[in-house]
Amino acid sequence: MEQWKSGRSSGCESGCKVAMRKALERIEPYSPGKPIEEVQRELGIREVIKLASNENPLGPSPKAIEAALSALRRVSFYPDSRGHDLKDAIARRYGLSPENVCLGNGADEIIRMLAEAFLEEGDIVLSVEPTFTQYKFAADLMGQSYMSVPLIDMQFDIDGLKDAITSRTKLIFISNPNNPTGSILRGDQLATLISFIPETALLVLDEAYADYVTDKDFQSGSRYVGPASAAPNVVVVRTFSKLYGLAGLRVGYCLGHSRIIAALERVRSPFNVNLVAQAAAIAALDDHEHVERTIALNESGKSFLYREFERLGLDYVPTEANFILVRLGARAREVCQHLLRVGVIIRSAHIFGLNEYARITIGTAGENKRLVSALEDVLPAVYGGNRREWQSLKNAL
Predict the structure, then answer these.
(1) Quick one: the chain helix, strand, coil %, rounded to 5?
(2) Which residues touch 191 (CB under 8 Å, ≥6 apart)?
(3) Distance of alpha carbon 87 from alpha carbon 278, whole angstroms
(4) SS3 of 314, please?
(5) Which of 173, 337, 342, 366 is 20 to 30 A from residue 128's alpha carbon, by CA?
(6) 21-28 contacts, C-beta under 8 A, 24 or more apart
(7) Which residues in the chain belong to E strands, given as ranges?
(8) In angstroms, what is the C-alpha Rg of the chain?
């Protein structure tokens, strides 16, 4: 048999003639924040803190850990593919039916399933800019168009969104609070947005960080979900990765009209949420004390970092999430690299098109202090000179 010759340049090794889908040529693999272990291994640093991926600095609930350990004894069995107990617990939390809940392998899979279930040729995905990159990925994956409406002063432009909607708009993704800015849609803005969403489109509210919001004007989109809902085309996406500290187990879910959920179930992979993850998530939902400690830690850390950023002369965007978008100047990526070398991992915001910014997770008191101390050393080093010279450069940022 004649050996295959090299095909088109699609990243295949020599001898492969199988062409990938054309749509994939638009997609760059997702680049997550560096894990602690990788930095330790590459730089030989023992003490590393990670403030790049918006993880819970307190870790998971002790009850969730206990439930996960207990579930390990049963991992020779497949998990409940329908996730009955977890869906039931989530539904009770929102006063909904399990038919209004779909489980995902993290919120990322929910976003992908929405694209797979609803996008067809000629459809448009609409969102804002800057925001979570997975919304564009969902459009690109299905080979469909993506449009974005720029934020105004890091806040949502409701009129701009209204003007951008056309008869071809199928999915409208809104991160609320928005990643990476931490800004929110107020309740009246959300109601206005819902009022002009056409019946042929879905409004997807990604509320990954909603549990951290303290602004009294915020309203969760979950109030619009359910049999009596006046907005059957609203979907709310949530995750156990942030507040509940289960990022490594990958558990997400969405709330929506039963017909929307039924469509998602058609594209959902069987056993997509593993047995251990389901058990831990159920336990995490019931640990209200851990939730309260997490929120309190976040609020105190936010206040501390606001004060310190102001002292350092750094602009930042007030946040309703567990991260802060900070302006580090024209050499922001260089600042991030210098911080990495001293064992402090933060997220350069260039991936969001914000070249002068970094997104910094609010950590423990000790982690926050270490971050500030590192910035005091790194900023003047990057911008050329000693601390006194750095002081004169502050206003230039």
Answers:
(1) 45, 15, 40
(2) none
(3) 9
(4) coil
(5) 337
(6) 21/143, 22/143, 23/140, 23/141, 23/142, 23/143, 24/141, 26/140, 27/137, 27/140, 27/141
(7) 49-51, 101-104, 124-129, 145-150, 169-175, 202-206, 234-239, 252-255, 316-317, 323-327, 344-348, 357-361
(8) 22
**What is the set of domains in the chain, with CATH numbers?**
29-58+289-396 (3.90.1150.10), 62-285 (3.40.640.10)
Q: Residues near 282 by Cβ (< 8 Å), separated by ≥ 6?
A: 67, 85, 86, 89
Sign of the dihedral defined by the CA atoms of residues 30, 253, 216, 186, in that order: positive
The pTM assigned to this predicted structure is 0.89
Return the sign of the alpha-carbon dihedral for residues 283, 210, 187, 171: negative
Q: Which tokens in the block code for residue 189?
A: 């803005």
6 touches 14 (CB < 8 A): yes
Strand order in the sheet with 124-129: 101-104, 252-255, 234-239, 202-206, 169-175, 124-129, 145-150
Is the Cβ–Cβ distance between 357 and 181 less than 8 Å?
no
